[in-house]
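Sample pair:
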Amino acid sequence: MQEVLKNLSERFLQGDLSPGGFLQQLSPFLHQGDARGQIAHLGEAQLDLERGRRCGFPEVVFAEGKSIESLEKIFNSQTAHGINVLATRMSAEKGEYLLGKFPAGRYNPVGRTFRIPPGCGEPPRVGKVAVITAGTSDMPVAEEARETADWTGAETILIQDIGVAGPHRLQANRPLFEDADAIVVCAGMEGALPSVVGGYVSCPVVAVPTSVGYGASFGGLAALLGMLNSCASNVTVVNIDAGFKGGYVAGLIARNCHRGIKQPPE
């Protein structure tokens, strides 16, 4: 808390925060004992400051539909509170503008994610998540999943273009993912790859159907139904193109796998 208050004070003295903005961001610390202290009131947005404590990871920002001004206000509040920022579905235009405002930020144009590490640095890596794609057309969804899993603190590896049309590619890459704590598989068309991967590993497989395919794929519905009917018992499914959800769940699994395990000293 002291570090956060110091950061707020420095930004106010440097002129980066107006008196009103300073008081607004200071408000949660003045109400630690009640519900008001758990929320940053930012006009159109009410930022959940306690999400990380309750749920394991901080609140994630869905950038689509939000104005640049609103995103900037949210990020200012998050960084002031030492929150590890992740925003999804951000356009290149918004990403370019916000990089100018937050030089420590990183924009991924493929996954359309924007991240700002906390002032104290990113957390140490805990657990391993593999993200696998059936084809290169699935990369936008896979990159969203990979960025999200990386944000949760997991070690991540991306393996692309190993769909069932060339099954030897899966076997060739098997050593890269068989020790993962959780695997995210992104596939469109008929959505068969998660079932095949599930038959080779002992960890949970989070299947993400993508809206890649011809007319009869119905925008990913065929892949979704195929994955829901998987005969591999370790496969679970999230929504169409929901790379964020796949990466978040996999990161949570990976972290909880190592809960209580003493990490070796650095």
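The chain has a mean pLDDT of 87.
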